[in-house]
Amino acid sequence: MVHTGNVRYLVGILALHATSLKAEWNTKDFQKREHSLTKPYEGSGFGVPNWDFQGSTMVTSNYVRLTPDQRSKQGALWNKIPCRVRNWEVQLNFKVTGTTRDLFGDGFAFWYTKERMEIGPVFGSKDFFSGLAIIGDTYSNHNNPNHQLPYLSAMVNNGSVSYDHEKDGKHTMLGGCQLKFRNKNHETWIAIRYENDKLTISSDINDKRAWAPCFSTEGVKLPTGYYFGMSATTGDLSDAHDVISVKTYELDTAAGVPKEERPDIEPESEFIAAAPKEKKEESDLPSMSGMKKFFICLLVVLGIIVVGVVGIMIYQKRQENIRKRFY
Question: How far apart are CA 89 and CA 202, in angstroms?
Answer without folding.
Answer: 11
